Automatic annotation (TrEMBL):
GO terms for molecular function: 3'(2'),5'-bisphosphate nucleotidase activity; magnesium ion binding. Substrate binds at residues 65, 87-90, 212. Its EC number is 3.1.3.7. InterPro entries: CysQ (IPR006240), CysQ/Inositol_MonoPase (IPR050725), Inositol_monoP_metal-BS (IPR020583), Inositol_monophosphatase-like (IPR000760), Inositol_monophosphatase_CS (IPR020550). Transmembrane segments: none annotated. The keyword Transcription regulation does not apply. Converts adenosine-3',5'-bisphosphate (PAP) to AMP. It is an enzyme of class 3 (hydrolase). This is 3'(2'),5'-bisphosphate nucleotidase CysQ. Mg(2+) 2 binds at residues 85, 88, 212. Mg(2+) 1 binds at residues 65, 85, 87-88, 212.
Length: 251
């Protein structure tokens, strides 16, 4: 696990460099079949990740947002695979607010067991696995271990929510809680804020895709937190339909 985390960290940083290069030179925005936006940065990052993973781990298949047309009949037999979002937070990238990241997760038996999330604008790298624990490295410095921080009974909740996808369900849910602060944020960075103890709760009611959540979930769980579906069950992966329902991420 440790060697894989080192390798995936290097890959995510290289992918981040590709994203930042596109960001500095300007880019066009196109629409995919589902009308979600895609830019040259998404594609450039994906090329870096796919090339490196293929070289280092030729026997482990890859399911990426920018190559998600692998039929379920093929995927359902996978015992181990990488789940990749080469640019999580494309809308944040287009807005140029810095809240985007590279996400790479290792899946075993359809569970995320290792995650890497890299935010290139702040040069912040989050990694995690149950075997190693969760860590953050800022500006290339030595990684520091991080842990979730559950709220005290008399302490108001610090909640993170989607910046680009607010929902009335979230407002209704939070109206029943003792919320001290609601922080909007983009991409899988929300998972990482819970993982490093800067937030207690990340509730999500709008849909996401599997590659949006896997790496973040691995990091949160490695830091001592949890992620479950709105139904209270384990969050499913490698489904025939890769769209996620809502979930709760808790410290």
């Amino acid at each position: 696990m440790k060697n894989m985390i080192i390798n995936l960290s290097k890959i995510s940083r290289e992918a981040g460099k590709a994203i930042m290069k596109v960001r500095s030179t300007g880019f066009k925005v196109s629409s995919k079949k589902d009308n979600s936006p895609v830019t040259e940065a998404d594609l450039a990052s994906n090329r870096v990740i796919m090339e490196e993973l293929t070289i280092l781990y030729p026997d482990i298949p890859v399911l990426s947002e920018e190559g998600a047309d692998i039929p379920f009949s093929q995927r359902q037999a996978w015992k181990e695979f990488f789940l990749v979002d080469p640019l999580d937070g494309t809308k944040e990238f287009i807005k140029d607010n810095g809240e985007f990241c590279v996400c790479i997760a290792l899946m075993r038996n359809n569970r995320p067991v290792l995650g890497v999330v890299y935010a290139p604008t702040s040069d912040t790298l989050y990694t995690g696995s149950i075997e190693t624990g969760a860590f953050v490295s800022r500006n290339g410095k030595v990684p520091e271990q991080i842990h979730t921080k559950p709220a005290d009974n008399d302490e108001g909740l610090v909640v993170v929510g989607s910046r680009s996808h607010p929902s009335p369900e979230l407002e209704e849910y939070l109206s029943t809680k003792n919320v001290a602060k609601l922080t909007p944020a983009g991409s899988a960075i929300k998972f990482c804020l819970v993982a490093e103890g800067k937030a207690h709760l990340y509730p999500r009611f709008n849909p996401t895709m599997e590659w949006d959540t896997a790496a973040g979930q691995a990091i949160v769980e490695a830091a001592g937190g949890s992620m479950i579906g709105l139904d209270g069950e384990l969050f499913p992966y490698n489904k025939e339909n890769l769209r996620n329902k809502g979930f709760f991420v808790t410290a």
